[in-house]
Structures are given as C-alpha cells and as structure tokens.
Design a protein that fits this description.
Blueprint lengths: L1 H5 L27 H4 L3 H9 L22 H5 L4 E2 L26 H10 L9 H26 L14 H4 L6 H18 L12 H21 L6 H17 L22 E5 L10 H6 L5 E2 L2 H6 L20 H5 L4 H6 L4 E2 L2 E4 L2 E4 L25 H9 L10 E2 L4 E2 L2 E2 L36 E5 H14 L5 H6 L1 H8 L23 H14 L5 H7 L3 H5 L4 E6 L4 E3 L5 E4 L1 H4 L18 E5 L22 H6 L10
Antiparallel strand pairs: 1-3, 2-10, 4-9, 5-6, 7-8, 11-14, 12-13
Helix pairs in contact: 3-6, 5-6, 6-8, 8-9, 9-10, 9-16, 9-20, 10-16, 16-19
C-alpha cells in the first residue's frame, strides 16, 4: 500500500496530521481530522494559509526561497551566467543535463492539499458565499501548481480529487494531454475570478486582482506556447490575457517612480501597483538575498550580450543609438543607459585607498578625489570622476537604495572598484564577467543575515508587459497600447518613449531577424523590466527560441592592461601588475594567448557552445520525468529525447 501512496506523489494523505492506517478509521477528540477540521469558514481560512508556502517552494522555476533563487529562471534561460571560472554551470549549454530517478519538480503534494480542501467544501457549515470563496482559493493554488507542471513537463496526470487506494485508474493512469490540463485551468480560473471575494481574506491575500494577475501570466504563457509550438487554440488564451490585463491596468493606474524600490522596500504594501507580495518580518521570517549579493556566495553574473540588450536613453538599442559611447571602457558602456541596468549590475567606479592601521581601507570622504582603487588593481586613468555614477544612482533611485562603493556584509570593507573580477580583485561582491549583480543590494537592510525587505509576487508592471505582448500576438498592438503599457515604464528608467511607427527592420541590427522588430522591442522591454525575477526560462521556451538565447558566447567586460596596477605602501597605484595580467586562469581574454603582449580585450571564460559541438537541444523545451515514476507506472512515458 505504501508504494501506491508514493507513486506519482499524488496519492492522498491527510495534510493535517501524521497518517497511519488506524488514523483513517479513528477521530480522537483532541486531534484534528478531515471530518472535524473542515466545518467553519475559520477552519478553511486557517487551512488555506498553508498554501502560501508555495511561493517559496524550490519546486518552481520562480520562487522566493530567500537565497536568490529568483535569479535561477533567468540563468536557465541564458540571460545570466554562472559565476565560475572553469565550469559553465548551465548544463543545457554544455549538454550535460541528464535524467534522474527522483525530483526535478515532479511534485503533486500541493495539488493534493488543494483537492483535500476542495472536496470538503460542500459538506461544511459555511454560507454559499464562503463556499464559493474558498473553492476559488483552492482552484487558484491548484492552477498555480499545475501551471508549473505543464510548463516543465507538458502532459501531466490531471487529478481533481483526493486519490484513494482504490483509484487505480488514476494511480496507474497515463499522462493527461497538456491542452486538456490547461483547459481545466482556464475554466477553473475564470470561475474563481467571478466567485472569490474581492477583498480576499484581508490585506495581501488571494482576491479578485490576484486571480486576474495569475490569469494574465498563465494565459500569456499558454497562448504563446500553443502558437509557437503549433498546438492550436492559442487565441482564446491570448484574448483572455488581454481582457484581464486591461482590467488590472485600469485599476492600478500608478507605478512607483523608483524601479529599485520594488526589490528594496521594507513595506511593499505602500508601493504602487503591488497586487500580492511576500512579507518578511524581523525575527519571524527573513531572507538572505542582500547577504548573498554582498558575499562570494552569489552563483550568477551577467554576460555582455545581456548588458547590451538594455536600451540607451534615446530609446534605441546600442547597435543604432547615437548616445551610446561604446564598450572600450565600462564607464562609457554604462553612460546614457537604461536605469534598470544600473539597478541590476554594479556600475563602474573607483575609490581612492588609504592606509588605516597598516591595512588598506576605503576613504569615504567626499572632499578628496576618488581616483584610485585598491584590491582590484584596476582603474581607468581616462575617467576624470571615478564616482560619477553615484550622481546617476541618486537621481534614478531616490532614497538610499543603491550607492557605490559596494560594501561587504557589515560594511567594514568592500570593493573599491568596478569591474571587480574575481581572482584579480576583491573576492566578495565580484564576478567573473565583470558585470556583478546587485539587484537586492541596498544601504539600509541588515547586511549580514536576516534581511526583511519585502518581495513582489504579482505586480502591475508584469501585467502591463503581458498586455503589450498579448496585444501584439493578436494584431492589436498600437501606439495607444504602447502608451498604457511600455511607455508607463520608460520614464522611471530614463529612457525615451516607444514610438511604434519608428521601429523598422533597421531599428536594431543585432536582433533576431526572424522576429518582428516591434515584437522584439516588446520582448526586450520584458527582459529589462523583469530581469532577476526568473521569467527567462519560461519565456525563451514559450517563444521556442532556445538556440538564440542559449548558444551565445559568454563574454565579459572589456579590460585594458594599463589599468592594472601594483600598490605602494600608501595604497597608491604604481606599475602595471603583469602577474595578474598574464594569469590565464584569473583573467582570460577573448583575443589573446595569455601573454603580456596583448594590451586589451573582453573577458572570455567559455567558448560559444556550438563551436565545441554543444548547445541547445530541442528536448530541453520539456523537462525529464523522474525514472522511478516510469518504473512504478509504465503508463507514464518519458518526454521526447530524454
């Protein structure tokens, strides 16, 4: 019997207490049971609180586990690189991704828990209004779980009841076609939209707006997946995405002028456009996002192509912008750029060092010139103001969310220059590409452990981007739609508005030429706005664009040999540090053979995967199913190619 309960992870057990054979027959007076736990509305409310843990579950590409797994989906999608000097951690680029016997997100426990509540609603003592409400809550969370499952695996078993041991047709059943499962979710969410309480169970709970936000997200995903994977019936999903997204856009008409505050606020409940968020409370529930970015524990960095994807202030891409200064200096590369880049990657700076007690330390005085660096041994002598981006950060992000220099943990030390390339510079707050992530970095949260900045789950900016993309896919994207979606986001990014009529085939000479130029700009906006929120892997798969995003060489920042210095006893730079420059492991460049002869180049740690016979395989559009499930149930078949 225990094997059947284990099979597929979907055989029901009581979620309220530990389960054994006798417990199924007895209901002690001092214990909760299925028959005694689901009676009043308060019972259902209490039980439903457990569903909210789904947002921090590691079984989802996007989750708020507190250890920067929010980046994971963008890393899997090729938007970000793996912060490692010898191993490209994206196993799809290297074709090292392999099947396993367990795990990989083939988990049905959340669905089981939803079904347990749903099947007890009709027999409760609740009013019809409350019954409808909690049925809607259960349907929402079941849909949220199934959305992830069909995103990963395609066909999955559809289970809408608590499975008994006698339900062998379910236990040993085949996978349900994804279109059928998705259509169930479509119907369930539309029902929940009209039956859930508009105010939910109070502030920051599942309500009508949250249901619509999930509909917007899932319907865009499913509609575009069906379109680009030629499954058919895409339009009904895209049309519903447009409908609910428009309703939310009409209600949430204001967005915050501070993009960075979305990730760096102690009270997101006051942030305009927030639909649902994860609240963190000192001493109760905290996270380590800020700490991870300040230490050597951060697993990700940004490659050059992603940096280049951000627009310039004139609203044009780097390939055609007249204000882009080139990339031969990181200072030039980051000038006149989208503020969202500066909120995500540590901008260039160099700070003069001073000797404190025999040790090199930062001088934070505004009175002296911030000319030199220390540990990083890197400074661009051609830049007059080595801290120029602090003025940009202050203007872009009011308050004190982002400032350089970037400091380590308790703030007693830190990097004195950016780019800070690991093995050449300071080991913390650095990267191997030179483009170091700091999206969760701020100047006020606990720098060591236990951060309490709130994190968004559903917010209007994402919904606006869903509206823009779905509108284009349905042939309805006009200047008017651009103005209520993308052009609401541009001003706070310091970027000129999108003028749809100006975007033609020559707008971006570096774009994927198989994608319409306007659609390309919509997708670019999505990537820039949502970078670090983990949508990347789902996006590139629903667009069926794995090769374009995954088969790129992971280049880093452009560096110049003359800027690498030794330091004298006073912390001032003297001669070029040849030892650092010639170290192939520490600083490999794309255009040199690791000798001191070459004077400059882009950091390059890994070859273009296709150059070495690797790269994206079409089987990666769907995940592998754990082999133990196939052994236990031969009707569960493996996905193609695995």
């Amino acid at each position: 019997m225990k094997i059947k309960k284990y099979l597929l992870g979907i055989v029901a057990t009581l979620a309220l207490a530990s389960c054994n054979d006798d417990y199924l027959e007895k209901y002690p007076k001092d214990s909760l049971s299925e028959k005694t736990a689901f009676v009043t509305a308060d019972n259902f409310k209490t039980f439903s609180w457990g569903y909210y843990g789904i947002f921090t579950s590691g079984n989802f590409y996007r989750n708020l586990d507190g250890n920067l797994d929010t980046y994971n989906g963008d890393f899997l999608g090729g938007y970000l690189g793996w912060r490692n000097k010898t191993v490209d951690g994206n196993q799809m680029r290297t074709q090292l991704k392999a099947t396993g016997s367990t795990g990989n997100g083939w988990v049905f426990s959340d669905i089981k828990r939803c079904n347990l509540m749903l099947q007890n609603i009709d027999g409760s003592q609740m009013s019809q209004v409350d019954k409808d409400h909690y049925r809607s809550v259960g349907l929402f969370f079941r849909a949220y779980s199934y959305y992830e499952l069909i995103s990963r695996f395609g066909d999955v078993p559809w289970v809408d009841k608590v499975v008994e041991e006698s339900d062998t047709d379910i236990i040993y059943g085949a996978r349900t076609p994804r279109k059928e499962v998705a259509d169930h979710l479509f119907d369930d969410l539309k029902w929940a939209e009209t039956h859930i309480k508009t105010t939910g169970d109070g502030a920051n709970t599942i309500n009508t707006d949250v249901v619509r936000a999930l509909m917007s997200r899932f319907f865009l995903f499913e509609g575009t997946w069906r379109k680009y994977h030629t499954l058919g019936d895409a339009d009904k999903y895209l049309d519903e995405c447009i409908r609910v997204s428009q309703l939310l856009a009409n209600k949430f008409t204001t967005i915050s002028p501070n993009y960075d505050a979305l990730e760096n606020s102690l009270e997101l409940k006051t942030y305009p456009g927030i639909i649902l968020y994860k609240e963190f409370v000192p001493g109760v529930i905290t996270h380590n996002s800020n700490r991870y970015e300040r230490s050597a524990a951060l697993s990700y960095d940004m490659p050059k192509w992603t940096v280049e994807n951000y627009l310039c202030k004139d609203g044009r891409p780097v390939s055609t912008s007249t204000v882009y200064q080139g990339d031969q200096s990181m200072f030039k590369e980051f000038r006149n750029r989208d503020y969202r880049l500066l909120a995500t990657v540590v901008p260039p700076f160099s700070l003069k060092a001073k000797i404190v007690g025999g040790k090199i330390g930062p001088d934070y005085s505004e009175a002296i010139p911030k000319v030199y660096n220390t540990v990083g041994y890197y400074v661009d002598a051609n830049v007059p103001d080595k801290m120029e981006f602090n003025d940009v950060l202050k203007a872009a992000f009011p308050g004190s969310t982002k400032r350089v220099p970037s400091l380590w943990l308790d703030g007693s030390s830190g990097t004195y220059n950016s780019p800070n390339i690991i093995d050449v510079g300071f080991p913390q707050i650095g990267s191997y590409s030179g483009y170091t992530l700091w999206k969760h970095y701020n100047t006020f949260d606990d720098m060591d452990a236990g951060q309490v900045t709130d994190k968004p789950l559903f917010w209007i900016e994402e919904t606006l981007l869903n509206l823009a993309e779905a509108s284009f896919e349905r042939g309805q994207f006009t200047q008017a739609i651009a103005d209520i979606t993308i052009n609401k986001l541009r001003p706070r990014a310091g970027v000129a508005n999108m003028v749809v009529a100006n975007i033609n085939a020559g707008w971006d000479t570096a774009r994927d030429q198989t994608v319409d130029p306007v659609l390309w700009e919509i997708r670019r906006e999505r990537q820039s706005e949502l970078m670090g929120h983990g949508f990347g892997f789902q996006d590139i798969r629903r667009w069926k664009k794995g090769p374009w995003y995954m088969n790129k060489p992971l280049l880093g920042v452009y560096v110049t040999r003359a800027n690498y210095k030794n330091l004298d006893a006073n912390g001032n730079p003297t001669a070029v540090t040849n030892a650092k420059w010639t170290n192939a492991t520490a600083l490999p460049l794309v255009n040199r053979d690791f000798t001191a002869a070459t004077t400059a180049g882009y950091v390059k740690r890994f070859d273009n995967p296709t150059k070495i016979g690797k790269g994206w395989l079409d089987k990666y559009y769907l995940e592998w199913i754990p082999t133990n499930q196939i052994v236990l149930n031969p009707n569960i078949t493996q996905n193609p190619g695995w």
